[in-house]
Design brief:
It is a single chain. The longest helix has 49 residues. This protein is mainly α. Helix 11 runs antiparallel to helix 12. The termini are far apart. 73% of the residues lie in helices and 0% in strands. The chain is built from 23 helices and no strands.
């Protein structure tokens, strides 16, 4: 009866009484019984729906656990990684659900762009920035930006142009110029999540920094391009619109980066000045997590690139904020961020595997499977061509600016960079759903063909290219040549190493070496890599670290764990 009274309260005030007031007294008892019967049936339906949701969540969590266990058992396997394992388990689960539901559904949860972009992607990208080897990232920063920004634009143009010319000859329905440009943005987005699984930061530091750094900038560039395409009227393109488009793109890129840097510096300043650790380490950890997430949400609120924002927020936090907290908070944040990222990665690939068999979308292409296969094959060919069109030429330009042969990108490494960046993942699927579906559903044949083709490209590229990446690295870059002296071993960082931001020289050598004046254009292109780092280190030690903290500049609080350990670092 308590549940019944609660349910009755959901009706508008006086509804039942007014309904009964105009009914003859003899019929009031029957009418009330009918109302009660109706309410009980609704309650039963609601209870069944809630129970189904609970069952679905239980099964999904069980599958996540299975992915973790199986991934651990396959840890030493040279072919399979955890992302591929989760993807294959998702596909197998989808097949089982299809059989049980007799072809009505293949997944336990409904795909949501908000779930992906707001909840799952931020911890992955933040942890990547938080634990990236900053020296490798910033020493190769110009090359990474060339690959991630200029390379993405080249790939975007090739895929869009190729799709425009070829798809018009296929019978897939009517697509406008906005759809073709959206296809270019969708398939120009690499899968930086899977890159984390197939490349090892310690074994291949150069390849990891280039491919993953490019992947982060690439994802941000693709999302910014996609949003710009949707916000512009592309039916009449002229030079003014093109210039406005490029200006808007550069504005979003720069502003998103600065917002992430500002959020990271603000968290460092607050923790340094207030020193929460004297009372509670929980507050330190909570503040770091919430500030990181706030930076992403603010970027989305102001229509910026949350991916770039949260990535650079992670880099700044690891350089300043992480050194301002207590020793226990360091250990906690390192493992907490890594765990959240790990679970989000497995969640994404598990769902993508199940959603690949969504019967609703495949029903529209069942009458012409050859067209769907042709579209998928063309898209795979275009993305391979588009990536090759910028990896090899831009690598050649990057090598021209490097005098040291050990710093140049060899042809074998270029092949690995090209191959490892061919994987497409959840970003592509999320953008495709945004462009070609409404709330995850589509009733148009062209849209269904492009959705199923996107899913096919994601599956094939992740499984085939992902399976072959590790053996390809072992074949082209032997292990003895991968581990170099580029990694500095010092005791305390999020990845158990410390490499100063933008640094190449040791702290003691900072002021003792003179900066050589470039004597030629080639030297001018080469020397800034070293001189900018050195000038940044001087500026960082003189102005940034005294204000925002960091290694060697932790505030003195008597008896604090950080202060006791700080004397060992200097």
């Amino acid at each position: 009866m308590h549940v019944l009274r609660t349910s009755l309260k959901r009706f508008p005030a006086g509804l039942i009484e007014d309904a009964c007031f105009f009914i003859p007294p003899i019929q009031k008892a029957d009418t009330m019984a009918a109302h009660l019967s109706y309410l009980m049936s609704k309650l039963q339906t609601l209870s069944t729906s809630d129970h189904s949701s609970v069952v679905s969540m239980n099964l999904f969590v069980a599958l996540l656990l299975a992915c973790i266990v199986i991934g651990h058992l396959l840890e030493e396997n040279r072919w399979v990684n955890e992302s591929i394992t989760a993807l294959l388990i998702g596909v197998c689960t989808g097949i089982v659900i299809l059989l049980i539901s007799r072809g009505k559904s293949s997944h336990l949860l409904v795909f949501s762009e908000d779930l992906f972009f707001i909840y799952l992607l931020p911890p992955i990208i933040f942890n990547a920035g938080f634990q990236v080897k900053k020296k490798q990232f910033f020493v190769n920063f110009i090359t990474i930006v060339m690959f991630g920004a200029i390379g993405t634009l080249i790939s975007f143009c090739i895929i869009s142009f190729g799709a425009t010319q070829i798809f018009k000859k296929l019978d897939i329905g009517s697509l406008d110029i906005g759809d073709y440009l959206a296809i270019g943005a969708i398939f120009a987005a690499t899968d930086s999540v899977c890159t984390l699984q197939v490349l090892n930061q310690d074994e291949t530091p150069l390849l990891y920094s280039l491919v993953f750094g490019e992947g982060v900038v690439n994802d941000a560039t693709s999302v910014v391009l996609f949003n710009a395409i949707q916000s512009f009227d592309l039916t009449h393109i002229d030079s003014r619109i093109a210039l406005h488009f490029m200006g808007n793109f550069l504005y979003l890129f720069f502003t998103s980066t600065m917002l992430g840097v500002f959020a990271g510096l603000l968290s460092a300043y607050i923790i340094k000045k207030l020193y929460f650790g004297r009372h509670s380490t929980d507050r330190e950890v909570a503040l770091m997590m919430l500030m990181a997430y706030l930076s992403y949400i603010l970027a989305e609120l102001f229509y910026l690139s949350g991916i770039l924002t949260v990535f650079f927020c992670g880099i700044v936090m690891s350089h300043y904020t992480w050194h301002n907290v207590t020793e226990s908070s360091r250990v906690t944040t390192k493992h907490a961020f890594a765990t959240l990222s790990f679970v989000a990665e497995i969640f994404i690939f598990l769902y993508v595997g199940m959603d690949a068999l969504d019967i609703e979308k495949w029903r529209f292409v069942s009458d012409s499977p050859g067209t769907s296969v042709a579209v998928s094959s063309i898209l795979l060919g275009l993305l391979m061509l588009g990536r090759a069109a910028f990896v090899f030429p831009l690598s050649f330009l990057s090598n021209l600016a490097k005098k040291n042969p050990n710093e140049k990108i060899s042809l074998r490494q270029q092949v690995i960079i090209w191959w490892a960046g061919l994987m497409r993942g959840a970003v592509s699927i999320a953008l495709a759903y945004n462009q070609f579906t409404r709330s995850g559903h589509t009733q148009l044949r062209p849209n269904a063909i492009l959705i199923t083709s996107t899913i096919t490209v994601v599956l094939v590229s992740t499984v085939v290219f992902g399976l072959m990446t590790k053996p390809l690295i072992r074949f082209l870059v032997p292990h003895s040549k991968q581990t170099t002296s580029m990694v500095l071993s010092e005791p305390n960082t999020p990845k158990s190493i410390i490499v100063p931001l933008l640094g190449q020289d040791s702290e003691g050598d900072l002021g003792s070496q003179e900066v050589r004046r470039p004597a030629s254009i080639r030297d001018l292109l080469t020397t800034p890599t070293h001189t900018v780092h050195r000038y940044w280190r001087k500026f960082d030690n003189a102005f940034m670290r005294p204000v925002f903290g960091g290694r060697g500049f932790v505030p003195f609080v008597p008896g604090s764990p950080t202060e006791r350990n700080n004397t060992q670092w200097q």
